[in-house]
């Protein structure tokens, strides 16, 4: 994530902020500029940018989920007739807000999704909603388990189906999510990780199946025509093969080629976000010995930049070396509990190449 500053007073602010703590002005992210702007409301109800952005003649409205529910922090140019911002527009179903805890869960879900959307915009990936493209668009359903009057529970399964991503609202509960992480022996289970994984399935459809890359995909990941439900059943009954770490980024990735792709895709998204943060804060790793991981200066990740995957990987090794040592010093689990085998690196490299060479149109609503 980039570093942002209040355009009114210059203070450091963050992507999730709604108010500058230094000067008190309202903050909002504007996707058209990929910037956090400090805003001032006019008597007409519209908002204008302040400070370094004050010469911007564009007026803004707060996303309806910002002004009405406090679950967003994006603004929209007034000429855009949509009540919701680009990110919120991809949400098809929100949780039942009459249920205790669901408003807080919805905020966490939307916060994670906005970070995903930022990554997608940074990498200039195709991004269209189902209203624009019913067969090839993307949308999210945030749903809760349903308990019937006799106590039976109808479970919501987190997953992807032809562009529709469903996330079980329970995943926003830290205790539930950590319990599931331990039960399924997952090294990393976060809301953002879930969303990045599921959107990986969406981009498999768009960039591999529809992008004529199936042959190259199958060489690395295997034949996706293998029965998915049977593979899933076998995984949950027997677990991953003993040597899974030699070939897969995670135990779950060994389930099926689709899951291998989605887990690997999410990993590339993790790398891009973390390395962009390292670049934005000017992080460097300069060890006393030449044979230790070094990071003279993190490069700024971009669509073109990740094409130099060897350099990206070198920076990633150094960054994760520091991350793990820092978290161990705090008595926490490793922030990066993964080992990248040569087979896994080849898959990550392939995904980076697919991203660099994707040519589908970006979000049309972004420029409206």
Explain this structure to me?
It is a single chain. With 368 residues, the protein is α+β, with helices and mostly antiparallel strands. It folds into three domains: 83 residues, no CATH class; 118 residues; 152 residues, no CATH class. It has nine helices and 13 strands. A four-stranded mixed beta sheet has the order 8-9-13-12, with helices on one face. It has a three-stranded antiparallel beta sheet with strand order 3-4-5, with no helix packed on it. α2 links the parallel β8 and β9. It is globular and about 65 Å long.
Which terms would index this structure?
368 residues, alpha+beta, three-stranded antiparallel β-sheet
């Amino acid at each position: 994530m980039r570093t942002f500053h209040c355009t009114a007073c210059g203070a450091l602010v963050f992507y999730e902020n709604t108010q500058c703590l230094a000067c008190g002005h309202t903050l909002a992210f504007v996707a058209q500029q990929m910037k956090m702007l400090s805003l001032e409301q006019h008597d007409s109800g519209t908002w204008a940018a302040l400070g370094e952005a004050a010469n911007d003649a564009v007026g803004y409205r707060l996303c309806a989920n910002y002004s009405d529910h406090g679950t967003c922090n994006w603004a929209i140019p007034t000429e855009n007739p949509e009540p919701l911002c680009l990110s919120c527009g991809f949400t098809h179903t929100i949780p039942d807000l009459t249920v205790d805890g669901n408003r807080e869960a919805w905020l966490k879900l939307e916060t994670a999704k906005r970070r995903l959307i930022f990554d997608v915009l940074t990498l200039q990936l195709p991004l269209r909603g189902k209203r624009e493209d019913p067969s090839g668009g993307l949308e999210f359903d945030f749903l809760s388990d349903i308990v019937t009057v006799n106590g039976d529970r109808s479970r919501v399964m987190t997953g992807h189906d032809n562009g529709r991503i469903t996330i079980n609202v329970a995943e926003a509960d830290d205790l539930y999510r950590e319990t599931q992480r331990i039960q399924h022996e997952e090294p990393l289970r976060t809301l953002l990780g879930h969303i990045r994984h599921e959107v990986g399935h969406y981009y498999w459809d768009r960039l591999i199946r529809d992008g004529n890359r199936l042959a190259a995909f199958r060489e690395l990941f295997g034949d996706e025509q293998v029965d998915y439900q049977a593979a899933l059943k076998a995984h949950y009954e027997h677990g991953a093969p003993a040597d899974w770490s030699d070939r897969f980024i995670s135990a779950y990735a060994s389930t099926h080629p689709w899951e291998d792709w989605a887990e690997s895709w999410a990993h590339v998204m993790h790398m891009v976000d973390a390395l962009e943060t390292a670049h934005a804060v000017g992080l460097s790793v300069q060890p006393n010995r030449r044979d230790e991981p070094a990071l003279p200066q993190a490069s700024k990740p971009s669509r073109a930049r990740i094409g130099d995957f060897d350099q990206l990987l070198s920076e990633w090794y150094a960054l994760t070396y520091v991350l793990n040592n820092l978290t161990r010093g705090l008595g926490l689990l490793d922030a990066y509990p993964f080992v990248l085998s040569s087979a896994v690196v080849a898959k990550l490299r392939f995904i980076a190449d697919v991203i660099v060479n994707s040519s589908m149109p970006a979000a049309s609503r972004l420029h409206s």
